[in-house]
Amino acid sequence: MKVIKLWLVLLFGLSLSVGITQAQNASVSGNNELSIDEKVERLLDKMTLKEKVGQLSLNVGDVINTGPTVNTKPSNKFDDLIRQGRVTGIFNTHGTAYLRRLQKIAVEDSRLKIPLLFGADVIHGFRTVLPIPLAEAASWDMKAVERSSQIAATEATAAGINFNFAPMVDITRDPRWGRIAEGAGEDPYLGSLVAAARVRGFQGDDLTAPNTLAACVKHFAAYGAPHGGREYNTVDMSERMLREIYLPPYKAAVDAGVATMMTSFNELNGIPATGNDFLLNQILRKEWGFQGMVVSDWQSILEMKVHGVGGSDKAVTKMAIEAGTDMDMEANLYRDVLPGLVKNGKVNTEVLDKSVRRVLKLKHKLGLFEDPYKYTNAEREKKDVMSKEHLVGALDIAKRCIVLLKNQNKLLPLKKDIKSLALIGPLAKNKQELNGTWSFFARSNEPVSMLEGIQKKVSKQTKIYVAEGCDFYSDSKAKFAEAINIAKKAEVVVMTLGESAVMNGEAASRTNIGLPGVQLELLKAIHATGKPIVLLLTNGRAMCLSWEDKNIPAILETWTLGTQTGNAIAEVLFGDYNPSGKLPVTFPRNVGQIPIYYNYKHTGRLYKGDYKEHKSRRIYLSKYRDVPNTPLYPFGYGLSYTTFKYGKVMLDKKQMKINETLNLSIQVKNTGKRAGEEVVQLYIRDLIGSVTRPVKELKGFKKIMLKPGESKKVQFQLTKKDFSFYRKDMSFGAEAGQFKIFVGTNSADLKEATFELID
Ligand code: NOJ
Fold first, then answer.
1. Does ligand 1 have an atom closer than 6 angstroms to the CB of 78?
2. Mean pLDDT of 676-680
3. Which pLDDT belongs to residue 607?
4. DSSP assignments along 447-468, one per residue
């Protein structure tokens, strides 16, 4: 009986959707032979001013709130707006039943029957929570990154979403900034590859497919460089720095065909990004040829007034639309103020129409005019969300993100038949925190906890003691005694410390980026028992870990890994997976070193000596008196349970003309007893330029698998574009001269060779 009912429902749904599709085509798109541009023009001709600005107005749904305004209105609050064609889409809401209802109003009851967009922040997975983006960047595995975004897209589209506010590709050199968790770290080269992989994963080859969605690269631009690492703060930098370090990942996303772009909250050199003509019209549209749609960030049009430009709703609305911000997220100024500006001739109709065209085009590209219901299939929602296949994929990705920071005397991996183990810390049994930032589509009880992961791996005889020890926030040491007690009983202690989910992500800047609360004190107390300790770190940023590095024999950076956390960690802890992650960010010794990054420049007062010599004498060099210039863990760093030996960097020529290709190779050997993956990294340095150049720039990497004793020749090619930069006159190109080429296991441990670029 149930089966028959289901078929009837499906059949009805299908005929309904076909019926609407035909109606759609007839009323809006007209002749199917027409190109998208022609269809858009025909539709535009029919639109009133109100309907036009409606297409530029995006509002947050009433299920999830991701901005400062709190929604308390009932869930039918959009019905009239949709019916009147005054809203282009709803975001951060989900569920096929609800979204189908809204879409039905749009395509049946509104005058022009224009389908709605359904947006969302699917930052690292939907209900199957994937590792945070910073963690995925640490995998240096672009196939894994792409697959992760595919899983996210499949689940989100199954729940009705067709427009995803990701990837965030903001480069940052400041781990105080909480949103470092959402990006790929500090490097423009790695960041660009990750950006492109994530766009491919979300959008696939076909944007009309029901399991792909429009990606939205954000936040344009330089949002990751707020002064002091404080969220939303002012950004001020040279154009050279902007173009060289911060812009490449956005550009890579554009080149990968990203459908949309989001502006940023920050001002850049005095002009808020949402009204920034130079960024949007000049760089994005003119220089990069971006054809897609630009959406503001949450009320960022309105916030321009608070920044101190414009001074009125009218002025900031005009600034934003004229700069090229097509869609207004949540400010409602395009809906309420823009019509008046157009009527009074203050904003040209052509400026408005351009933006409307881009929105309609996006809806066409998604195939929404043909089938507005394709993302609202309840059956698919049941089948695809949190599917077995996705869980398997999530585990495979999660384990690749873990970085082994220290492994003294080969404490790791642990033996599965270990007699006893004490698992201590606020994350020992916790599930909810493992979902991390931006995980409101997830369920708090679904992640595999660390305890569960470990329990599955160890032998039946292994005794596991568990204690929380402390929480993330309070000063209380009341639970220390219990933790010390179990530590004393165990052969090995595994400490699970770090950040809670809300301690990184948006609006989560921190000035103290060590272990929060009394966790370090707990660690010290356990250390005092003399037991061997493995430290599992859960966090969404680079942290200051000087004491931990000095005193704890084994440290694993596990970031925030999502649903499969416990399983992924257990695979690494007990050696079923040999860790292969490498840091996508520099870990400072202390907060005072920030900003600290690998691709810095030499000063005229170069310091080469060692730290001690330095402390004792007043030497007028670029250094600190209290800590070395070097970081605790450099960019690209990460150990393995095996060891790798690098040969010499071999170049096929010592001199190269600018338009030739430099072929280089290096022999890498697994000198240990386990199979393992290594990320072989290639950096260059231009020794003398018309402008100063960084001491190192990542230009390539290869992740290879080597069996014990196996040796592989790893090859790279470098061409003109790799040697190019913004020269003195800001033209982009290469300059003849001497270069250093470095290859190795991290940005501070490299073999080098020299060569010359000639005209
Ligand atoms: C503000 C955030 O900056 C942005 O990344 C996000 O997409 C929007 N809120 C919508 O939630």
1. no
2. 98
3. 84
4. SPPHHHHHHHHS-TT-EEEEE-
CA of 500 to the centre of ligand 1 (A): 20
* Alpha-carbon separation of residue 55 from 67, 336, 518, 627 (angstroms): 21, 13, 51, 55
pLDDT tens column, 9-33: 344 344 344 334 444 444 444 467 8
Q: Show the DSSP H helices in 79-127 as ranges.
A: 79-83, 96-104
Name which residue leads in pLDDT, 415 or 70.
415
Check pocket membership of 182 for ligand 1, CB cut-off 6 A: no
In three-state secondary structure terms, 737 is strand
How does DSSP classify residue 503?
G
Pick from 66, 132, 295, 302 the residue to mutate for probing ligand 1's pocket: most ligand atoms within 8 Å of its CB.
66
Q: So what CATH class is 50-381?
A: alpha beta
87 has pLDDT over 50: yes
**CA-proximal residue: ligand 1, atom 7 (nearest):** 165
Distance in angstroms (rounded) separating the CA atoms of residues 52 and 644: 61
Neighbours of 441 (CB within 10 A): 25
Amino acid at 569: I
Tokens of 706: 């080597």
- DSSP per-residue codes, 613-654: HHHHS---SS--SSS-SS-SB-TT--B-SS-EEE---EES-S
CATH code for the domain defined by 644-758: 2.60.40.10
Question: Which residues are identified as catalytic?
Answer: 297
Query: For position 724, what pLDDT does the model report?
Result: 98
Given a contact cutoff of 8 angstroms between Cβ atoms, the answer to whether 316 and 341 are in contact is: no
Q: Distance between CA 347 and CA 322 in Å, rounded?
A: 8
Distance CA 230, CA 54 (A): 34
Whether the bond between 413 and the residue before it is cis, its omega within 30 degrees of 0, is: yes
Q: What pLDDT is stored for residue 625 in this prediction?
A: 85
Res 113: pLDDT:
98
Supply the mean pLDDT for the chain.
Answer: 94
Both structure tokens of 651: 């170049």
Helix, strand, or coil (residue 612): helix
In the structure, what pLDDT confidence band is assigned to residue 66 with cuts at 50, 70 and 90? Answer: low
pLDDT value at position 194?
99
**Nearest CA among 701, 691, 688 for reference residue 738:** 688
Query: Do residues 264 and 222 lie in contact, with contact meaning Cβ atoms separated by under 8 Å?
Result: yes
Instruction: Report pLDDT digits (tens) over 645-668.
Output: 999 999 999 999 999 999 999 999
Structure tokens at 558: 């596990």
Listed by start position, the domains of the chain span: 50-381, 402-573, 644-758
**Dmax (CA) of the chain:** 88
- According to DSSP, the residues that pair with 725 across neighbouring strands are 733
* Bond into 175 cis (ω within 30): no
* Separation CA 468–CA 490 (nearest Å): 15
Q: How many residues does the chain have?
A: 759
Place domain 402-573 in its CATH homologous superfamily. Answer: Glycoside hydrolase family 3 C-terminal domain (3.40.50.1700)
10 Å Cβ neighbour count for 395? 22
Ligand 1 atom 1, closest CA: 298
SS3 of residue 55 by DSSP: helix
Cβ of 92 below 6 Å from ligand 1 = yes
Probe ligand 1: pick from 60, 263, 298, 302, max atoms within 8 Å of CB? 298
Confidence of residue 615 (pLDDT cuts 50, 70, 90): low
10 Å CB burial of residue 372 (0-12, 13-18, 19+) is: buried
**DSSP at 205:** S
Half-sphere exposure of 732 (CA within 13 A, CB side): 9
297 CB under 6 A from ligand 1?
yes
Rounded Cα gap, residues 368 and 118, in angstroms: 11
- Average pLDDT for 73-86: 84
